[in-house]
Amino acid sequence: MTMQLKVPSIACGGCADTITKAIKNLESEADVQVDVEQKIVTVEAKASEESIKKVITNSGHTVE
Length: 64
Fold this sequence. Notes:
Elements: E1 2-6, H1 13-26, E2 31-35, E3 40-44, H2 49-58
Antiparallel strand pairs: 1-3, 2-3
Helix pairs in contact: 1-2
């Protein structure tokens, strides 16, 4: 399932790395792309949207 999430707390590439690692810890097969300028995280994963949002939040970011 592909989902696009607005993550307004993304400020830099480091934020993108943190979010990517958090999602990959949940599901190593996930395809994660982070657009720092648009503050959009695109995830192709089997995990539920709720669980993806939870790991992003747990990594210190906010999801709209």
